[in-house]
Write a structure and sequence with these properties.
Layout (H helix, E strand, L loop, with lengths): L16 E5 L6 H10 L7 E3 L18 H13 L2 E5 L3 H9 L4 E4 L1 H4 L2 H11 L5 E5 L6 H13 L4 E6 L16 H10 L5 E3 L1 H5 L5 H10 L4 E5 L17 H10 L10 H41 L7 H17 L4 H28 L6
Parallel strand pairs: 1-2, 1-8, 2-3, 3-4, 4-5, 5-6, 6-7, 7-8
Helix pairs in contact: 1-2, 3-5, 5-6, 11-13, 12-13
Bound molecules: phosphoenolpyruvate and manganese (II) ion.
């Protein structure tokens, strides 16, 4: 199966696809009440976790198969399609028996190629929709690799879910979005619909709108948002779940972006700005190349004088200076730090190479 083939499973709606429902199915009444309160003109798919992967043992690990029956009732009553997480061949078997429409691989499954392979074998040839959450760690290859394993087992209807990445440090997010990885995913697999999961990225009710809007600014195809009839008393992920009414409010506020606009003033202005950016990029590249040539000369000079490459005082002075100048120019510390670290590393690599060549050529023996 070709991952570059256009996907059409999400085209049953005109606009973006919206998947909503609780983190976990807890009780039949909770599942049904949540579904009944959803705005059926906006929500297309009802999600609920039946088997829950929990970080620590002893937490609520899901109600198991019985929850699939409750979900079937949701479909009967509301006509919503159904989605749940599968992490083993047994989950797949049970979910398929219950005719679940969307099956997703969770972040803790995508991270493990053995498991992905087993799930892919169990799903072989299915025409159900299979969505792959990004792995817990920021590794694009694992994410793409999981989709390749599914495609190799002739699973045709594929999609991906961006749910952010774990970090050791406490940040604003429960799972750091690392938007650049989602963008790189899109670049590598442009035909795979990308759905945002702002609930697991944000981890907080009040952060969901912003992440969801950002996803649409980046032209994502849909959202998966955890929604619960009584979020404060949810058995898992209580802080991040919305009530169906909050979900309605957030969805109403989100602005969808067009992929392009016909307006000729817009087009001319965009063309002009893009040409300016292209021009600046060209100059940036020339400057970087000049900087690297000087770094090579410095490497030669240090080599001839038998001086170590790394000079921490010099590096600190550069960082201080660029931080100060950059701030005056309106550039963020974070950006300067990562940009100059990359430049510094490249300079060190070049100096290293020059010195290695010198010792190979016997310059030091002379
Ligand atoms: C979930 O969707 O409830 C879930 C467990 O997600 P993730 O795999 O993204 O942690
Ligand atoms: Mn959850």
């Amino acid at each position: 199966m070709d991952l570059n083939r256009g996907q059409t499973w999400h085209r049953f709606t005109d606009g973006p696809i919206l998947i909503a429902g609780p983190c976990s199915a807890e009780r039949e009444a909770q599942v049904l009440e949540t579904a009944r309160r959803l705005d059926l003109s906006r929500v297309h798919v009802f999600r609920a976790g039946i088997w829950k992967p929990r970080t620590k043992p002893g937490g609520f690990e899901g109600v198991g198969e019985i929850g699939l029956r409750w979900m079937a009732r949701v479909r009967e009553e509301t006509g919503l399609r159904l989605a749940t997480e599968v992490a083993s061949p047994r989950h797949v078997e049970k979910a398929l028996e219950s005719d679940i429409d969307f099956l997703w691989l969770g972040a803790r499954t995508t991270v493990n190629p053995f498991l992905v392979q087993e799930v892919a074998e169990a799903l072989r040839g299915t025409d159900k929709v299979v969505l792959v959450k990004n792995p817990v760690n920021p590794d694009l290859a694992l994410w793409v690799g999981a989709l390749e394993r599914l495609a190799a087992r002739h699973i045709k209807n594929l999609g991906a879910i961006h749910r952010g990445f774990s970090t050791y440090e406490k940040t604003l997010y429960r799972n750091n979005p690392h938007w650049q990885i989602a963008i790189a995913f899109r670049k590598e697999l442009p035909q795979i619909p990308l759905i945002s999961d702002p609930s697991h990225i944000s981890g907080r009710r009040d952060g969901i709108y912003e992440v969801a809007q950002q996803a649409f600014n980046l032209d994502f195809e849909g959202l998966m948002i955890e929604t619960h009839c009584d979020p404060d008393h949810a058995w898992s992920d209580a802080e991040q779940q919305l009530t169906p009414e909050m979900l309605r409010d957030i969805i109403g506020r989100i602005e969808l972006r067009n992929r392009c606009a016909e307006d000729s003033l817009y087009r001319t202005a965009l063309y002009a700005m893009r040409s300016e950016i292209d021009d600046l990029d060209e100059r940036l590249l020339e400057l970087l190349s000049r900087r690297m040539k000087i770094a090579a000369d410095i490497g030669r000079l240090k080599g001839e004088n038998n001086v170590a490459i790394l000079q921490p005082e010099r590096w600190n002075a550069i960082l201080k200076r660029t931080e100060k100048q950059g701030a005056q120019l309106g550039l963020s510390d974070e950006f300067l730090d990562s940009a100059f670290k990359a430049i510094h590393q490249a300079s060190i690599d070049i100096q290293n190479r020059v010195m290695l060549e010198m010792s190979r050529d016997g310059v030091w023996e002379k």
